[in-house]
Amino acid sequence: MDESKRFSLLVDLHRDGARQGPGGDKKTLHALELSRLGPISHLKVADLGCGMGTSTMVLACEIENTEITAVDFFQNSCL
User: What whole-number distance in Å separates Cα of residue 23 and Cα of residue 49?
Assistant: First the structure.
């Protein structure tokens, strides 16, 4: 199977999901916990491959005064 077919199947798999990929809020919160950042102010965060921005919103709620830039390959994905 060629690369473009695999990519197309991956997109189709997650197209209708809330996250458009694996993981969940608990996984995002666990990753944040492992980072030991806590509610630090004035961070700049890049969420690359954000999909629908579900994890981005979790981070925005958990880290105060943070500038988050969320981008995705698909223009219609991001908030």
Answer: 13
Tens of pLDDT, residue by residue over 10-37, are: 777 767 766 666 678 999 999 989 988 7
Task: Give CA–CA dist 48/53, Å, rounded.
Answer: 10
pLDDT at 78 over 60: no
Tally of domains within the chain: 1
Coil vs helix vs strand at 75: coil
Q: What pLDDT, on a 0 to 100 scale, did the predictor assign at position 37?
A: 79
Query: CA angle, 76 as apex, 74 and 78 as ends, to 5°?
Result: 85
Note whether residue 79 is domain-resident.
no
| Cα separation, 19 vs 60, whole angstroms | 16
